[in-house]
Every structure is written in structure tokens, then in C-alpha cells.
Amino acid sequence: MRIDILTLFPDMFRGPFSTGILQRATQNKLVCINIHNIRDYTHDKHHTADDYPYGGGAGMVLKPEPIFETVETIKKEGAEALPIILLTPQGRLFSQAVAQELSRYSQLILICGHYEGVDERVRQHLVTDEISIGDYVLSGGELAAMVVADAVVRLLPGVLGSAASPLDDSHTSGLLEYPQYTRPAEFRGWSVPEVLLSGNHAQIAKWRHEQAILRTLKRRPELLDKASLSSGERRLVDNLSTHPAAKESP
Ligand code: ADE
Questions:
Q1: I need a labelling partner for 25 at 20 to 30 A (CA). Which of 13, 97, 232, 239 fits?
Q2: 139: CA distance to ligand 1 center in Å?
Q3: In ligand 1, which atom is closest to the CA atom of 113?
Q4: Across 96-110, 124-138, 159-173, least confident range
Q5: Is there a contact between 111 and 86 (Cβ–Cβ < 8 Å)?
Q6: How confident is the model at residue 154, as a pLDDT?
Q7: The whole model's pTM is what?
Q8: Active site residue: 89, 150, 168, 210, which one?
Q9: Following DSSP, what letter does each residue of 136-165 receive, concatenated?
Q10: Per-residue DSSP letters for 30-51?
Q11: Is the CB of 117 under 6 A from ligand 1?
Q12: What is the pLDDT of residue 241?
């Protein structure tokens, strides 16, 4: 996959993209991330990328010309039909399902909005999608672009050590993830649940699935409406909902 990110603050991406899983994915050529400084596509001597809003009002608005030019330059080098995504609090809400959807493309363009916003013509005539990472306002789209890139790249084949691991993630099945433990089996008097030490894989899988349901019911009950559960699992949810004594581990 190739990800092109348009920003006024390229330095912000140095840390997150040169450590951990994103760095490894880049080194292993599973993803190529290009950061483009929007200012490099301006033509005046002050490299003006923003201007006052028509009609007045506080703040500055990102100008359309350098954003169009950056995207057009990228498109000449890359795929024909590719998502051009503006990161904005006005976009559709990002989720694991959206990350999975985006991970199927061979190229993405992410545009980081800034200041009071972006000239509306960028929205109307250039971008194909708008994404928000949550109902709060960041000072720019950069952190949102990092969140989207991270969530998408870890889904690409070969990026995580084991092919099975993204399937177990919270949200992939519509449920939150079950509790995890590692050694020691007893720490400060708190023991690891017996079943995990039993070696009985069927029992362990059953326990984990129940814990995932319990945890979801307790913390994010609204997710259960959309989760794909068997009729037995639905009964379990109904039972647990009517018997709140049911306990999440630990
Ligand atoms: N830019 C500012 N706030 C944002 C948000 N919540 N999501 C995406 N981009 C943003």
C-alpha cells in the first residue's frame, strides 16, 4: 500500500512513523508513506497556504490551489481511482470497519485540514471521502491522519507477526477483546483464571468468548446490537443482562 499525506506540519509525522509497527512495515516494504508539505506547492515568495475567509470571521482557511496541485502531482504517479480523504471533525466517524474498508485499497491520499478549515471547493471537487476520528476538535488533521494510517497499516497482510492477531482485536468481531494474562500465574495474591492454565483449548476459547461478551455488555452494550452472535450467544447476553450478578473477570 502507498499512503500520501498532505500537511502543513510534516515534522509531526517523524516520531510515530519511525517507530514500532509502522516503521517495521515501511522497512519491510509493506507500506510506503509519503509526507507532502502543502507549502511546497505554493508559488508566491511567502509560500502562502492559507488566507482570510471571504465574508469575514475568525481564523484562516486553507487555500485550494496548493492542495489541488499536490493531489494532482501524486495522482500522476499512482493509481487511477483512489480515495482522497479529508480529515475533519465533519467527516464520517472512523471505526474498525472503516479501517478494514480502507485497507483494501492499494493507495490512499490523506489531507490534513487546519486552522478554521479548508476552502469548500476542496470538499466539493477534490476529496472523495471525509473522516473524523471522534466527536472532538483537534488543532489539525495530522493526529487524525496518524490514527487512520496506524489502524489501516496494521491490518495489511504480513504487518503483524501472526496472521491471526488482527482477527482477535477488539471491535473486529463487534465485541471488545477478552482479558489477557501472562506470567507470573500469581502476582501480589491475584491469580490468573484457572481455565487459562488448564491446557484445554476448547474451554479456553469458550471462556474467552464469554468474557468478550461480558466485557462488551458491561462497557459498550450498544455494540452488542450490531455484533454477529449465534442464538446461544444471544441467549447468554439476555441472561446476563437480566442477571447483573454475572461477573466479568477478574
Ligand atoms: N481535525 C480536527 N479535529 C478532527 C477530528 N476529530 N477528526 C479528524 N480530523 C480532525
A1: 97
A2: 8
A3: 1
A4: 159-173
A5: yes
A6: 96
A7: 0.91
A8: 89
A9: S--SBSHHHHHHHHHHHHTTSTTSSSSTTH
A10: S-EEEEEEGGGG--STT---EE
A11: no
A12: 81
pLDDT tens, position by position, 110-129: 999 987 799 999 999 999 99
Q: Are 48 and 94 spatial neighbours (Cβ–Cβ below 8 Å)?
A: no
* Residue 174 near residue 141, CB atoms below 8 Å: no
Characterize the bridge pairing of strands 32-37 and 2-7. Answer: parallel
**Rounded-to-integer distance, Cα 9 and Cα 163, Å:** 34
Ligand 1 centroid, distance to 171 Cα (angstroms): 21
pLDDT at residue 240 in the model? 81
Report CA(30)–ligand 1 centroid distance (Å): 27
Verify whether residue 220 is a known catalytic residue: no
For the chain, how big is the Rg over CA atoms in Å?
A: 23
pLDDT at residue 250, as a whole number: 58
Percent helix, percent strand, percent coil in the chain, to nearest 5: 40, 20, 40
Residue located via cell numbers 473477570: 249
Q: Provide the pLDDT confidence category of residue 88 given band limits of 50, 70 and 90.
A: very high
The yes-or-no answer on residue 89 being catalytic is: yes
> Is 57 within 8 Å of 97 (Cβ atoms)?
no
